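Hey L., structure's done. Input below.
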Amino acid sequence: VQLQASGGGSVQAGGSLRLSCVTSGRTFRWYTMGWFRQAPGKEREFVGNTNWPDGSSDYADSVKGRFTISREYAKNTVYLQMNSLKPEDTGVYYCVADRDRAGRNTLHYAYWGQGTQVTVSS
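Output:
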């Protein structure tokens, strides 16, 4: 599985961005998909995911109510809609995938995209 993330950029606090992650292969719908982020000097942290097979979602407390993950099966794409952005949301965002149900640990995900930079200014 190959993951290609895009959609990052610079935005002022309170603004919105939508990240996209296109996956290769025909088994997209059978994978848990998620997002992590890493700020400068900090460890990589879980943002959210949408699980296979039940479609349940989980979000970090820091983004709950502001970020939403969705899938577009026809395009093999998962999205991260980010609203009400804050400067602390700044970082490199990574799209991730795994064949099984996965949690909040980086070790749960076998596949990683290249990352896309998000910068939120105050």
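The longest strand covers residues 91-98. The chain has a mean pLDDT of 94.

-- N.
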